[in-house]
Structure formats: C-alpha cells, structure tokens
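Quarterly update, task 2.4: pyridoxal-5'-phosphate-bound model.
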Amino acid sequence: MENDILLHLKEIQNRINKACEKAGRKAEEVQLLLATKTVSSERIKIALAAGYRLIAENKIQELKEKFEDLQSSTHTSHFIGHLQTNKIKEILKYQVSCVQSVDRLDLAEKLQKKLESENKTMDILIQVNTSNEASKFGVAPENTLALVQEIAKLDRVRIQGLMTIGLFSDDESKVRPCFQLLKKIQQDIVQANIPHVNMRELSMGMSGDLEIAIEEGATIIRVGTAIFGKRIYPDSYYWNENIV
Ligand SMILES: *Cc1c(COP(=O)(O)O)cnc(C)c1O
C-alpha cells in the first residue's frame, strides 16, 4: 500500500516534469495538490511523509474526521468542494487556509463576517464553471469578472486566483478549451486591475488531464485517483449534492 502511493507520486511527478518541459515551464511553477476525498488519514500521511504538503477535501465531514490524525504531519489544507454557508465556521475551526470553491457573493460575504468576528483573513479562489454544465458548481464564465469585483470589496477574503473542474471527457479537444477559457478570464481580470485582487493561481487539471492543464497555465493541479486509487463513490456525489 505504501509502495503503491509512493510509486504513483513518482509517476505523477514525472508527468508534471514532462508536461512542464513540453510547455517550456519550470516544474516548480506547478504545485501538486492531493485530492484526498475518501482517502484514510493513514494513506494521506504516506504522501505527506514523502514531502508533499498540500491536501484538500470536498466535504466538511471528512475534514473533521481526519483533522486530529493529520495534526502530527506538516501540511496545508485547502477546500475544494461545494461549501454551504452554515459550514463556514468549520472551515475556520479545521484550519483550512484556502477555499478554492467560492462561486457566489453571499458565500464570500458570510465568510467575511465570520473572519471579522475571529479577526482572521483567508485566501480564496473563484470557482468558474468553464464547461457550462448545469451539474457543475462555479460561477458562469461571463459573470466571473463582476463577481470578483464585488468580492474584492471584502477585506478579509483575499482572492488569489481561479479554479475550475472543466469537462470530464477523454476528448482532449473538449477539455482544453475549458482550461483556455479559465486562462482568458484570468487575463481579463488582470487587465481590469482590481485593487486587492491577485490572479497568480490557476487551479485546474486532475488525474486524467493534468498535462493539458499544465500546458494551458495551471499553477495548481489537483490529483486524487492517480495517487490513491479509484474511489467507491461516483464523482457526482462530490460535485453536485443534489444528485444524491
Ligand atoms: C476529486 C477531485 C479532484 C481529483 O480528481 P481525480 O480525477 O481523482 O484526480 C480534483 N478536483 C476536485 C474538485 C475534486 O473533487
């Protein structure tokens, strides 16, 4: 089990290196985030011990369950799932440093309020629905700039970039435009020159499409299956809570 995870991490690192080389980028520009949904703390710790530091959950329940166990291993915790406003206090309690899935103003406003009351700040990414599927969360591409402008007024939430899931498909010609669109939106936002808005992070690319994402400018790739193996739940369980 341990060997599997270490072997898979090596394979992923090789894929990152190759994709960066092809794209004329430095491998250090791309951070590997371990998507740890359904993965036990034991298995997560193997990856952390190998030197990887960035992990992310999709559900508050799992964040909570693994929190104590992971205290002994140095790591940074992001949140990549749909976040309900009534779960914000847990995000702070379990020391999430960045919510990558902010896709609406009311969520950012409630986050701001909670952060104010605890005298804290938090990094966020704006999740964009680049594939325009009704089943996916994320702000519509055409509304992203306006949302960023509104959230930028909130001084406790610090926008650091954008996140997308993209189309889940084996057809590269359908996947790539999603990543290109996120890059385009990033550039438009940079152009708009909004105070307090940072656009350095592009979180895109997963087990099946990380090479394409890296070629299109990803700075964070989020990988689960290719490191920890297949999950028993369908991804729809995580991406759209209305389905179950
Ligand atoms: C599960 C998940 C990933 C990782 O997907 P894999 O295909 O297992 O690599 C990335 N991003 C989000 C938002 C996820 O929920």
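Highlight for this quarter: The radius of gyration is 17 Å.
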